[in-house]
Amino acid sequence: MPIDGEYEPSPFGWVRNQIAEYEASGGARANTLRDTGLPVIIVTTRGNKSGKVRKTALMRVEHDGEYALVASMGGSPNHPVWYHNLVADPTAVIIQDGPEPFDATVRQLTGDEKAAWWERAVTAYPPYAEYQERTEREIPVFVASRNNT
User: I want to staple 68 with a disulfide (CB 3.0 to 4.6 A). Which of 11, 12, 20, 61 is the partner?
Assistant: First the structure.
């Protein structure tokens, strides 16, 4: 299900530029978190208040064709805005990991399943562990699964 509507780029210039370059190159460029060399994916959602199309680059945490979406916001006390978009409409999600974006559905994880994905996330991006120590909130983890067409 494509996410229709007006695209509103990130207010952060470096995020806006990274997403534009990633998409323009089919994921061949701007596919890492700044200069870390660690891969990212592009996640498209619909704004839960504005209804506008939103895009963000998240760390690539993939396992058996599914992707963890970790709402860390660097250990901030608040959830990132995109977290609320996923909660509001878990079926309005597009994942791009390389040249071809695909429709996905997300679900928030709990218990042992969350623990397993959290371990994968920390392995892919070790600062997640520090982010969790930095905040009193439990960092949410979603798993995004490709929709069957």
Answer: 61
Place of tokens 């990274």: 18
> Do the Cβ atoms of 3 and 48 come closer than 8 Å?
no
pTM reported for the whole predicted model: 0.95
- Detail the DSSP E strand segments found in the chain: 40-46, 53-59, 62-63, 66-70, 93-96, 101-108, 141-146
Q: What are 62's two structure tokens?
A: 């993939």
Q: What backbone torsions phi and psi does residue 95 show, to the nearest 5 degrees?
A: -110, 135
pLDDT in tens, 50-86: 999 999 999 999 999 999 999 999 999 999 999 999 9
- The backbone region for 75, taken as left when phi is positive above 0, alpha when psi lies in -120 to 50, beta otherwise, is left
